[in-house]
Design a protein that fits this description.
Layout: E1 3-8, H1 12-20, E2 25-28, H2 33-45, E3 49-54, H3 57-65, E4 69-72, H4 80-91, E5 108-112, H5 118-123, E6 133-137, E7 143-144, H6 148-158
Length: 161
């Protein structure tokens, strides 16, 4: 199943987790409901299963009327893990081998530290001695590594399986 998640503005942290898991996830920042519905309909036309993740009951209702799959998530961070578990179970999600940029959703490419270019080395200078493998965003060129933040996110996700 070719899933594409659309996450509304108040649930930005959900988008980051889905991207780390490797799922195509559009963060709907600064868009009105009509623009969001149009994006969801266009996504369905491209043979992707569009899933709207929202805490907005009105938007959820309109999306359902357009036959879009909706996952309602009350926007309270302390409930996040139970909602994430429900989302994983409902859509049979797993942690994919290829992860996405938490900021822009593009695919991350892995590079060994000796393969990093000058700009990438500059971004990773604080941790370059502690890590051998880095992940570079194809689009925004941001450099990531499997540090404590990444490990904590993966640990939370794995605890839900």
């Amino acid at each position: 199943m070719n899933l594409c998640f659309f996450v509304d503005e108040m649930l930005f942290y959900v988008a980051e987790y889905l991207r780390i898991m490797g799922y195509d996830t559009i963060y709907l920042k600064g868009l009105d409901d009509k623009e969001i519905i149009k994006m969801l309909i266009n996504s369905k036309k491209s043979k992707k299963m569009a899933v709207l993740i929202t805490g907005d009951k009105n938007l959820a209702s309109v999306a359902k009327n357009h036959l879009v799959d909706v996952f309602y998530m009350y926007p309270e961070k302390k409930l996040f893990q139970s909602y994430l578990k429900e989302l994983i179970d409902k859509y049979k999600l797993k942690i994919k081998k290829t992860t996405r940029c938490p900021k822009c959703n593009s695919i991350l490419l892995s590079k060994r530290k000796n393969e990093l270019n000058e700009n990438e080395l500059k971004q990773a200078k604080e941790v370059i001695k502690r890590y051998k493998l880095f992940f570079i965003c194809k689009a925004c060129k941001k450099v990531y590594w499997r540090g404590s933040q990444w490990k904590e996110m993966i640990k939370k996700i794995k605890s839900l399986f």
